[in-house]
Automatic annotation (TrEMBL):
Heme binds at H233. The gene is kynA. Binds 1 heme group per subunit. This is Tryptophan 2,3-dioxygenase. It comes from the Bacteria. Its EC number is 1.13.11.11. Keywords: Dioxygenase, Heme, Iron, Metal-binding, Oxidoreductase, Tryptophan catabolism. Its cofactor is heme. It comes from Streptomyces sodiiphilus. InterPro entries: Trp/Indoleamine_2_3_dOase-like (IPR037217), Trp_2_3_dOase (IPR004981).
Amino acid sequence: MPNPVEPEPEAPHLDFQGTTPYEDYIQADVLTHLQHPLSDDPGEMAFLVTTQVMELWFTVIVHEWHTASEALRRDDLPTALAALRRSCYELSALNASWEPLAHLTPREFNSYRAALGEGSGFQSAMYRRMEFLLGEKSASMLVPHRGAPRVHDELEKALHEPSLYDEVLAYLARCGEDIPREVLDRDRALRYEPDPSVEAVWQRVYSEGDPLTELGEALTEVAELVWRWRNDHLAATRRAMGAKTGTGGSAGVSWLEKRARKQVFPELWTARSHV
Ligand code: HEM
């Protein structure tokens, strides 16, 4: 009989003092004990884990967009492009994680819907950090987090910081593009509003095949993948609950339809009509 702790040559190590180095780095034991379904329905676990998985992707994507913003501030375009590219792969993985929730019948969703109480993804602070980085600022989105000082402080900081798009426009201005002063000096805590001069800059970049097209395309990819997330969310919601009101108190699908119509980086889309 072989000794069970005597590994075969070339097999992975089995013998560790304390926890495994994998556990020390990944904290899988912490991560896999954060699931506490509140109903007896076996489908609730998939809802809980999918939502947690999405929160993790939101966290990585926020990290990438911070990296890109900081790189642009230093005029380091290659580092910014690499972070934006990674964020696109992560957004694709985020969007693929809709699958377990994309086919729920209303009866299936009803079996654990009560467990959510008034809980809704609307209250996701990390999703708001993503929106703020896209330029979709809104002070009212801080209100649900008044009772959680750390989350509130992080969101408040993010509200006043320049968005990723603000950093892109400042970078374009430093590259000699004609970005108006009032756009560069805008109140960062307000939602970004499209500007005709910014549209004209993207129009020139795309018409002339300027190297800045690469930056424009990386941002366009981000914008499209965010739009896809919103539409997949809308479709899953429509299937799971029809026109009922949301657990967060909104009108539900009709409210989400309006939200899904928002354009991320608006001038990158409108400029295309003039190229
Ligand atoms: C079948 C599953 C789902 C249904 C039926 C659903 C339904 C809804 C509804 C009705 C709203 C509007 C606010 C409200 O009244 O609650 C909403 C908002 C939201 N949900 Fe979901 N949701 C689902 C899954 C998810 C998942 C897995 C996430 C991932 C975190 C998520 C994230 C969000 C976010 C971020 C918002 C706010 C959107 C915005 O502000 O534009 N939802 N959801």
